[in-house]
Every structure is written in C-alpha cells, then in structure tokens.
Design brief:
This protein is mainly alpha-helical. It contains eleven helices and no strands.
Length: about 190
C-alpha cells in the first residue's frame, strides 16, 4: 500500500504521508523493502542520519538495495566522512549478492546439498575462477574431504587440467581452518 500511495497508482492519490505510515508499519515488522523505502524518503528530505539508520536495518537482513545506498553514501561522503574502504566493502557485498544470480554458485550449492560432490566441484571451480572466495574454499574442502582421488581424476576432462591446477593453487592458498564450507555435509561419500 505504501508503494501505491507514493506513486499515486490507479485510483489512489499520491500521498507521501500515508505511504510513510504504511512503510513504517511494515518496517516495524522487520520488512526490509519497507525499511529501504523509508530510508529513501528520508534521503530525499536530506535527513541523512535517519535514512542511514533505516538502510542499516535493512542491510542487516540482507537487502541488496540497502547495501548499495550505504556504499553510495560512504563513497560520496554524504552525512559522514568519505570512506572508499567502507564503500568498497559495501559494493563488494552488492556485487556478490547480485552475481550469485548469474554465477554457478547456486548450482554448486544444490549439488553439494544433494551429495553430488563431483558435480558440485565442477560448479564451484567455475565460480572460483570468477573470484568467489567461498567457492575457492569449497573446492579445497571437496577435494580434501569428499572426492576420492580416483573419482577426481576421472571427472575432469584433459583440456581443463590447466584450469583445474590454477584453481587448486588458489584454493589451497586461500583456505583457512576457521573458514568452513558454505554447504553442510550430511554424510561421507
């Protein structure tokens, strides 16, 4: 209803006051899109601190748009000191959250959940080549814990060995003991 009132869609007249009431009601129930909408309304009114608070609430629940606005605020130094480091961290979160829709990470996760570890390895290797740290760690984990060596050798075409070696080098160099795999292993293969 808030969106209808802010746009003045259909027979509903444009009324930002009513829109704000609806958004606040939804935001109190921890609905991230409403928190982002409120933040954008306050941002338009140049109420930066209130807007930032709502963006941060939505970001805590993973709202991509909230991370983007926080990145922009930090990058441009709006209502705060300009911080390229913080902005870059927020931009990275946005890129990783959006990129998962276009990468093989989702396929890899589903394969690992279904205990199809060889298939998961291939998908994670593609994602690792795109630079996903979690995929790199999962490649190393799968090779260490889930894939028997004879199966690993049989599952990788000869043309992909150079690529495979490169991913293995990166994977083993970036893995840390306190960085568990993204998927849960329910049983040994």
């Amino acid at each position: 209803m808030g969106t209808l009132h802010i746009l003045g869609a259909g027979d509903i007249p444009k009324d930002t006051g009513k829109a704000l009431q609806y958004f606040k009601s939804s935001a109190e129930q921890n609905y991230p899109p409403a928190q982002v909408s409120i933040a954008k309304m306050y941002l338009e009114q140049n109420e930066i601190m209130i807007a930032t608070r709502y963006f941060e609430l939505a970001a805590r629940q993973g709202a991509i748009e909230a991370f983007y606005y926080l990145a922009e605020l930090n990058h441009r130094g709006v209502g705060r000191e300009k911080s390229c480091g913080i902005a870059a961290a927020y931009y990275k979160i946005v890129a990783e959250k959006v990129e998962i829709l276009h990468s093989t990470l989702g396929d890899a996760f589903r394969a690992a959940e279904g205990e199809r570890f060889t298939e998961a390895l291939v998908y994670y290797m593609f994602a690792a080549e795109q630079g996903y740290e979690s995929a790199q760690a999962n490649v190393a984990y799968l090779i260490d814990k889930c894939i028997p060596p004879f199966l690993l050798l049989a599952s990788i075409p000869a043309a992909d060995w150079l690529s495979c070696c490169w991913v293995l080098i990166i994977s083993t160099n970036t893995r840390t003991p306190d960085y568990p795999p993204v998927f849960k292993q329910t049983s040994q293969p």
